[in-house]
# Entry
Amino acid sequence: MRETLSVLGAGLMGHSIALTAAWAGLSVVLQGNSEASLARADKGICDKLALLADNGLIKQEDIATMRRRIRTTVSVPDAVANASFVIESIPEQMELKRQLYEQLDAWCDENVVLASNTSGLSPTAIAERMKRPERMVVTHFWNPAHLLPLVEVVRGKKTDDKTADRAMQLLRAMDKKPILVKKDVFGSVGNRLQYALFREAQYILERGIASMEDIDAAVTYSLGRRLPITGPFMTADMGGLEVFDAISNYLFADLSKADQSLDAMRALVDCGKYGLKTGAGFYEWDEAFSAQMTKAREQELIRYLKRDMGMEQPEF
# Structure
């Protein structure tokens, strides 16, 4: 089945998801709250297309074709009128999402899949007011959505097999690498792993074991180099399970068990230092440093994407 796609929300994630669909040859309707938000989305799409072309991932002449595959509107009913699959990417506010899904449940034909790009909210809770919660599912894209292959398909308690299967099929058609999260748990899979690492990083910093720069370096220059090839279970197999078992048995008891952010993180947030978006966080983010790190991350992700697409051979 070829889905007719609608994306609600034209922010960073929404317009990147729409671009991903267009890149895969799908037509998509992108909805924004205002003409200004759609103008910002259009600029974001144009900038990303230019980056893809500059790096040989698409041809220059493909840009106009891909842009034509994306139709924009400020009207939610207009956006979903002919959709068979809706992906919502509005702000992470539970009540806002519940209201939207209650409306979508009434507006959309019963065969339309309603998916959320939420990174942590419960699909079961989002679908609480729906009459047909079996057609609601999470499709969590990772930022930047057009460059990172992973999408987590998260089932709510009432999500049926058909809905989950259609989500997996659509994402594969969009050239993504979807995984199925079988249970509705906080953080799904990716964020649980990411925040387990981040909690321990905060703990090591708080205890004065190493500087934040050296903690970052410990990841960047060791397991960060290995993880693109081997995930945690394959890494353990290759290292020897008896070794990992022995280390787990003495190390787990000494790892952080904090149930909230630690003091250094809390202090930064309390004084409005949120990182790149405010110019300061753990690091100082002036314009030059922000541009440098954004470009470095994009180039590394593009390098891996080229390998995924068979454009470059892995260096084994």
